[in-house]
Amino acid sequence: MALHFTSEQRLEDDVRERRFTLGEIPGILWTPASAPAPLILLGHPPLGLDKMYPRLAARARHAAADGFAAATIELPGSGDRPRWAAAEEARADLRRAREAGEPVSDEIIDALTLPLVDKAVPEWQATLDALLSLPDVGGPVGYSGGVISIGIRLAVVEPRIVAAGLFAGSYVPRAIFEQACQVTIPLHVLLQWDDEGNDRQAALDLFDAFGSAEKSLHANMGGHTGVPQHAGEGADRFFTRHLK
Amino acid sequence: MALHFTSEQRLEDDVRERRFTLGEIPGILWTPASAPAPLILLGHPPLGLDKMYPRLAARARHAAADGFAAATIELPGSGDRPRWAAAEEARADLRRAREAGEPVSDEIIDALTLPLVDKAVPEWQATLDALLSLPDVGGPVGYSGGVISIGIRLAVVEPRIVAAGLFAGSYVPRAIFEQACQVTIPLHVLLQWDDEGNDRQAALDLFDAFGSAEKSLHANMGGHTGVPQHAGEGADRFFTRHLK
Question: For the whole model, what pTM was predicted?
Answer without folding.
Answer: 0.90
